[in-house]
Design brief:
Elements lengths: L2 H22 E2 L4 E2 L1 E2 L6 E2 L8 H4 L5 H11 L33 H13 L3 H14 L11 E4 L6 E5 L2 H13 L1
Antiparallel strand pairs: 1-2, 3-4, 5-6
Helix pairs in contact: 4-5, 4-6
Length: 176
């Protein structure tokens, strides 16, 4: 019974989607990047923030195709445990750091679900299985679920028994 409000929400969402596409998608590299505070240029560091437009369904199908290719690039995100928080080939990748390197399962979830939303179901399943097969501490291992994971070895990093990670594992498992 709120047709006018519904139409207004759709119009706002459409305008926001266009702003995301125009402001954050780099046509040269075919990936979404953060931008400088003055909004004048992209910060060309491949990270999971470039996957969020897929999860939010703000990308075009063509952009999703380009991002899917970056996800499966072993120099970027297709590591032993996929989705490091900075591309695997970036010089500032730091596995012993907190954010720029380890795999956070919530970020992996955003990338995987984003692929699903754009019809890349087989690819999303492949990534999910790669996480379950290679991250240590899942399925009868006796090891705790960790806060994040080494993208190259699968070793658990930082906090033990991390509920945020466990919740995203359930979501990934149910989505397989």
């Amino acid at each position: 019974g709120f047709k006018n409000e519904g139409a207004a929400f759709i119009a706002e969402a459409t305008a926001l989607k266009r702003k995301i596409q125009e402001g954050f998608f780099d046509n040269k590299t075919k990936f979404y990047f953060d931008i400088t505070i003055d909004r004048k240029k992209h910060i060309n560091i491949y990270g999971p923030e470039g996957l969020i437009p897929l999860w939010a369904m703000a990308a075009t199908q063509t952009e999703a195709e380009s991002i899917q290719k970056v996800i499966f690039d072993s120099d970027k995100f297709y590591t032993r445990v996929p989705f490091p928080t900075i591309s695997a080939d970036h010089p500032k990748l730091d596995i012993n750091g907190y954010w720029r390197g380890p795999v956070w399962l919530d970020q992996a979830y955003f990338g995987i679900m984003g692929l699903r939303y754009y019809g890349y179901v087989r690819q999303a399943r492949k990534l999910t299985e790669r996480i379950f097969d290679n991250a240590k501490g899942f399925i009868n291992s006796g090891l705790p679920i960790r806060e994040n994971y080494n993208p190259f070895t699968g070793e658990g990093l930082n906090a033990n028994n991390f509920s945020w990670s466990a919740a995203h594992l359930l979501l990934l498992y149910w989505g397989r």
